[in-house]
């Protein structure tokens, strides 16, 4: 019995501490991380989507605050239960918050295109709500199917298609913004790179993101005082931001959720593959926590993320919740149970009292752009750093549909600004000028799934596992038939599929690969799939 207690299998007589001195360190670090994400998210809503302020500060942010409060509170409770069960005093709560990759995907791939197409950002918001609605149920069901998906899909395919999103839809816009205001953008980028890639530590351990924002504010406000207007800040805008102060409780948005179902075909093309990615990401992060000594049940984590995301969605929040990477770091910093719950309380205060608008009026948006670029760089690099070197060509192949989708978005935006569209200009005329618009349209449709399938086929060909490659090619044929790949919406076309020629081509590839798997048995030995990456991904602070 004494041995059992020593090993932590017997419940202790004393209750776990809800707060320790180390929780202050974790709260400052993790809280700053969450604050930056909130500022970025609000900037996307206001400046990219042109969302009305009453929707941003009166509906979306209060609902988001509620979601994060529930999430961080639940994971604090889960940590408390684990500490109570094991008798350990070093249990650290799982960090959680807005899923950063999804924040950009739902903005640029779902909400922005629909807002641009309809001319109404509220329609984009409603589409985002439906996206999260489906993602939530995928997460809740994911505890049962996630192990199978992870088993059959190569990591290079999953991370490769995510890298495509990071390069095209996360990295490019911030990079362009940096060079539009280089005095702030490049300076802040250097601050970020020095710390998060170069290992430079700033005085008193201040996080690099906070240092970058501080420098950006100094340059922007200094230039404003000199009448140079570098950064676009002004006392007038600062004064206007005070108008958002007030107490806003989240209100049910079920009617807006149902309104967004009219865009279901477009939404499912990305909701399904990103739901799959969520499952893998959550499992990876739970495994990371277990490696640090804290065992949390994957099914409960996935279910919790799904439930709190669904609650947030029904209250008006179009951004999904996720367990963050970095649990070992916060634990090493001294974080235990309290830092998680305290972060939730901080978010409630920021979101329900309209403080975010004031912070945005104080901080130049270009000072945040390097943080976004860094996130895109990290996600893109992860695909190469955590997979075998031999799979690099497959990752590049998985990127290409996203580049096509990005190029089409730029062309559509430019033509829209000129008051026309590709059909009016003429697809053939554009092709004669070297712009293969229809090719971009076909390759970029359903880019996330397209990249995943193409990447998986390439990985299995590289590994000489032709039967597996044939299975993914066959899946590509089916998905393309219904418009989930290489199509703008789900359907069956005129009975032959949304893009029948591409669907048929995938079927032919599947047949070829299957023939290779049968005829080359004994002639070509399949490789044993290696899981060793060629480098180690170091998380940011």
Automatic annotation (TrEMBL):
Parts of the chain that traverse the membrane: 26-49, 56-78, 98-117, 129-149, 155-172, 179-199, 205-228, 260-280, 301-325, 345-375, 439-460, 466-484, 496-515
Keywords recorded for this protein, A-Z: Membrane, Transmembrane, Transmembrane helix
Keyword Transmembrane recorded: yes
Keyword Transmembrane helix set for record: yes
Protein name stated in the entry: Regulator
Organism this protein belongs to: Bosea caraganae
Taxonomic lineage from the root: Bacteria, Pseudomonadati, Pseudomonadota, Alphaproteobacteria, Hyphomicrobiales
